[in-house]
Amino acid sequence: MNEFERRLAARQDELDWLYMELYDDRTRLEDLEAMMARSYDRRGQALRRLDKEREADPDWFRSGRMLGVTMYPGLFAGSLKGVEQKLDYLQEQGVTYLHLMPLLKMPHPDNDGGYAVEDFNQVDPTLGTNEDLSHLTAAMRRRGMSLCLDFVINHTADTHEWALRAKAGEREYMDRYICFDSPEIPREMEKTIPDVFPETAPGSFLYVEEMGKYVCSSFHPYQWDLNYRNPAVFHDMAESMLHLANLGVEVLRIDAVPYLWKEIGTTCRNLPQVHTIMRMIRLMIECVCPGVILKGEVVMAPKELAPYFGTAEKPECHLLYNASTMATQWSALASGDIRQLKRQLDDLHSLPAHCCFVNYLRCHDDIGWGLNEEYGRTLGVDPVAHKKFLYEFFEGCFPGSYARGQRYNYNPATQDARTCGTTASLCGIEKGLYEHDADQVALGVQRDLMMHAAMMCMSGFPMLSSGDEIAQLNGYAYREDPNLREDSRNLHRTKFNWDNAALRTQPGTVQQRIWDGLRQLEELRVHRPAFGPGTWVSTWDAHNSGVLAIVRRAEAETLVCLFNFTGRAEEVRLEGLEGRYADLITGREGLDHRLEPYQYGLYRLEA
Q1: Tens digits of per-residue pLDDT, 184-199?
Q2: Is 255 a catalytic residue?
Q3: Residue 24 Rama label (left phi>0; alpha psi -120 to 50; beta)
Q4: What is the spatial distance between Cα 313 and Cα 317, in angstroms, rounded to a whole number?
């Protein structure tokens, strides 16, 4: 019995039961398991060794040494070969987890940042080849880095072979999408399905003249939702995932997970069949390539997140994005009030121990202001007025704002909108530099580092947006490009500034101050026991609505972490944390009970 057969034997009963519950087809199930066996046979020896190491250390991704960076490979270094040539830079930064944004074959120019995929088995020729990807992942493993890659599971481009064959009238391929002959059912479904892009792509169905059918398209018209009621879709998509794993991808970011199953009369989000599909994918990964982990993109309210982890006995995703805390953290910065952020963290800390989040301030996408409106009302916060305040504040048009961002996806009916911009520009560095005001720049740097410090001290592991380590600013040239100007997310999807990166070693530059500040935090995470697996993490009452307090406890260490989210000096009172402390940021003795504007501190209990 080989390793695959041993692993499958331990999981076969559950996999069989789930598959038959969803598809009720024993022959197709046998085909699926045969495909899994073939995928295992194709897995290289180096990757099989990695699988055994990870089976022996299943919490490897919870280590304090984990530091992620997300980037578009073309914007960072031109191609996959270019990224490989820049691995020294990433290693200097301490990166152990590199998330490359979508790089599989896509149409040009309309591809939604790579999330419209033409071929799930081929790298886009503009970025390289499958061989380049395999070579890059091998080079990264030698440096202790893991590659994360998006897998767009919900939809294909309308130029994918399946879509083209569907347009040509082939019934087999029409059945791979969610199609209707007449508009009655689509219109009924649109009554309960929320729009993803209400401003730029309203509705969830479009009429495709070549087919004479109405096709489900939750995102953009050139992205067609797949029909997971059809087992052929599940088989082929699962095989493509395993193909990427065999190219050395160690983390599969599963895109738009909640959307996978559609039912009339529902929101078509978070339905039970989604969890059946994700549990089957988890079982397949554990059988074929247990060195690989699954990261789910679940941009939902906190109460809807926990099911995507599954249970400790029957897990689904290893990791989820902490999108809600990202938004709540920026809200705290704008308002100078951490109460909603503290409540958000308390909700997440109450989840079972197997739940693990990737924390971040910025990513390729926008900041969606999905706050806990019910709790906000108890604080006297009007949700509509507060959202309007937030996107206006970070747009820079609210009186007294230091931020420079842009709104995205404004919905005039609900007055809702999202926010775009780099961390440095949203924190005030851009405004200070533009106005040649050194004091504004210094405050912007302090805000930037405080926000990163708070994110790094939360439960989970941190992921930076490429360029944040050198305070990269917004790029406005996209407005002149007819292919980009309609999407304000391109404000922060800009080419990496290597000239500015060279300034990270020049004392006094913004780049040096941000780089060194982040490296100090990253080194603390690597070497302090209180950032290791199994650490107890909780917020604490600082008796001040402007200061967030987080306590991290391991057997060998207790850390008290304080963050002033206001532009004022603030007093704090911490009950039950008496003792002698040392500030790991400044090296001073004692725990500060008065924090300067945007000051942060990590205090180690000495006795």
Answers
A1: 999 999 999 988 887 7
A2: yes
A3: left
A4: 13
